[in-house]
Predict the 3D structure of the following.
Amino acid sequence: MSRDFRLDRTAVDVLNYEIAQDQAVALGRMGRALEAALARLREFDATHPRSGAPASAQQARRLLVTEAGHALWMFVVQREACGLRDSHPVMRDYNVPDEVQHCMGAVPATSMLSAT
């Protein structure tokens, strides 16, 4: 942050600016995490047939879907904290599969797996 900004602003202005910076950094980090989780799922799907897959492959895929759902939830929550309430552009722009959207939630991926 430039020194000029700090001299012309109140302490609240400076604090709000720093909060906005932190929110933007967190939003970028959550977006990259979602992209990575979706890429892992797509890569798995590209290399493993869905029909007739062994139980171990099905469980590995469920884990990837659950992890992507958690990453999606983290990203959507961070967007909402930044005032971006509409998640439809996220689903469209990141091409989020329906099954990932349906398992989106706050429960960590490892806890969700043990419940299935």
User: Anything to note?
Assistant: Residues 3-103 form one domain. The mean pLDDT is 87.
